[in-house]
Amino acid sequence: MFPVGDTAISGAWVEPEPLVEPPAPGGPTDARREPVAYVVQDSDRDPALVAVFGLGDPAGPKLLEPLQITDPQGLIAGTFAAAQARVLDASGLPRTEPPKPRAAQQLSLDMEGIAACTEGVKLDTESPGPLGYGREFWVVCEGKGHLVDGRTVEGKGAFRRPNLLLKLAPDGTRRSLMVRSVFELPGEIARHQETYGLEGVASGPKGHVYVAFQRGWPRAGDPKGFTRVGRFNPDDQSWAFAHYPLDRYAQNAPGPKSPKSSDEEAWVGVSELSRAPDGRLLVLERDNQRGDLARVQRIYAVDVGAMDFRGAGPLPVLKKELVYDIIDNGVRDPRYGVSIRKPEALGVLGAHQLLLLADDDGKRGSKKGTPFFFLRTR
């Protein structure tokens, strides 16, 4: 366990990324490098950073160095301001003066997933340290608030910010990453924003980027029991989507009974995406229950390459295959002696090895640390 204390873990990516085919004899290899995990947090009250953990020490993961995320061009602040103005206009409300952008070192984001850019990347394999210091990354940030046909609602669910896909690039210091590009969801989807938004990102074939919605957005056309996976093409900045079927929370399963009895209270959603060595996407599903009330904590694989994602109209449904059932395999949280509180981050260590991290929701003053779970799927 690493004593992250107040940090809320929400996404991870591991390098060296395992490959389907081994490198050719005499070809470049990064096998001499220790595995490294890049971890993001979903706490928008703390400075945004990517924590870099070395995984090669038998004694356990070690924090190597945090990479600060900066936005020297103010791209995020500009996107937030434009989205707020758009929503206020649609709602017939007067525009408000946008808050002054924070200093770059104080940038805060509700990050929910990270993945390295894998297409056209040339890395410095001779310099010491993790290869990721020279990488570009994709990061998803969850939005906040509801929209009904582009109009904000009143009260607690009022619109605050949109869901974003960010591209981060090295700034030359090897100590921070800067925001290079900011992408929003297409307008016909974003205008129906709901609370549970983007929650996981993975790089895929042909340079495509895949993002998961934690739960479905009914007003955007998602049927009950389904959420959606989005595919973003950086070349033309286009979006396409497919539906993903969610497991159901079984109230009648053996074990303690949940006091949350309705579908609106006891729900199942997606927490993370990651790319498997065979090119499929791994999807981490979980319910919102605590301890031994949890029923669903499973990792599935979906073949996105075989699916015709669509920009509009009826969406195809992804077929999922169970890879690992966390609860059925007896994985317990050593801090509390019960099922994992909130499995949130997933990384791939090898063909049948996974890294799983739990989220403590950034509890202030926590001294129990965040456990790293190393799973074997076979």
How does this structure look, described?
With 378 residues, the protein is mainly β. The protein has a single domain, classed as Tachylectin-2, Chain A (5 Propeller), CATH 2.115.10. Helices cover 6% and strands 36% of the residues. The protein has two helices and 23 strands. The chain has helices spanning 75-91, 187-190, and strands at residues 9-15, 36-41, 49-54, 62-70, 111-116, 137-141, 147-148, 151-152, 164-170, 176-184, 198-203, 209-213, 226-233, 238-245, 268-275, 281-287, 297-302, 320-325, 332-333, 338-339, 343-350, 353-358, 372-376. It has an eight-stranded mixed beta sheet with strand order 1-2-3-4-10-9-6-5, with helices on one face. The chain has a four-stranded antiparallel beta sheet with strand order 11-12-13-14, with no helix packed on it. A four-stranded antiparallel beta sheet has the order 15-16-17-18, with no helix packed on it. The radius of gyration is 20 Å and the shape is globular. Residues 1-6 and 19-32 have low confidence and may be disordered.
Short description:
6% of the residues lie in helices and 36% in strands. The strands form six sheets. Strands 1-2-3-4-10-9-6-5 form an eight-stranded mixed beta sheet, with helices on one face. It has two helices and 23 strands.
Pattern of helices and strands: EEEEHEEEEEEHEEEEEEEEEEEEE
Query: Strand sequence of the main sheet, in spatial order?
Result: 1-2-3-4-10-9-6-5
| Helical run tally | 2
- CATH topology name, in short, is Tachylectin-2, Chain A
Radius of gyration from the CA trace? 20 Å
Architecture per CATH nomenclature, i.e. the level-2 architecture: 5 Propeller
The percentage helix is: under 10%
Instruction: Please give the alpha-carbon distance between the first and last residues.
Output: 24 Å
Give the oligomer, counting copies of the same chain as homo and different chains as hetero.
Answer: single chain
How confident overall, as mean pLDDT? 83
The low-confidence runs, each spanning 5 or more residues with pLDDT under 50, are 1-6, 19-32
Strands, total number:
23
* Major sheet size, sense and barrel closure: 8 strands, mixed
Strand content: 35-45%
